[in-house]
Amino acid sequence: MKKEYKSIMTRLTKEEYEQLKEKANQANISIYKYIQQSLKKSRIISSYEIEMQRNKLNSISKIGNNLNQIAKNLNILQQKNKENINSVIIFNTINNLKTDLENINNQLLKVIK
């Protein structure tokens, strides 16, 4: 189904226009997109925020991969040595990674709110 577009014309004071333009520039989107997102009552997310979220999600993914590698290597060591690996070292390593994940998650939540 083809969308039907309507044009609108509005008047703004110079100050209002500059404010609108500045907000759109801060979000790194066009004035048109800024108005569209405002009308939808969606949160206006700048391209910078989107990029930051992507970077943080990549960091979380890397940490998850590190956890998998640690688990794999621990299993290999345990099979080769036929003995228990120091559980304190394992516990501390996993706790450190868990803290890193929680910090990144909290940063993501701040961007979303």
Please specify the SSE layout and strand pairing.
Elements (H helix, E strand, L loop, with lengths): L13 H13 L4 H9 L7 H35 L5 H26 L1
Structural notes for this entry:
It is a single chain. The chain has 113 residues and is mainly α. The protein has 2 domains: 11-44; 47-112. Helices cover 73% and strands 0% of the residues. It has 4 helices and no strands. It is elongated and about 80 Å long. The mean pLDDT is 79.
Short description:
By secondary structure, the chain is mainly α. It contains 4 helices and no strands. Helices cover 73% and strands 0% of the residues.
Which of globular, elongated, flat, extended, rod-shaped describes the shape?
elongated
Structural class by helix and strand composition? mainly alpha
Number of helices: 4
The average pLDDT value, as a whole number, equals 79
Helix content: over 70%
Order of helix and strand elements from N to C terminus: HHHH
Q: What summary fits the major beta sheet?
A: none
Note the beta-strand portion: under 5%
Number of strands: 0
Structurally, how many domains make up the residues?
A: 2
N→C terminal distance: 35 Å
Low-confidence stretches: none
Indicate the radius of gyration in whole angstroms.
24 Å
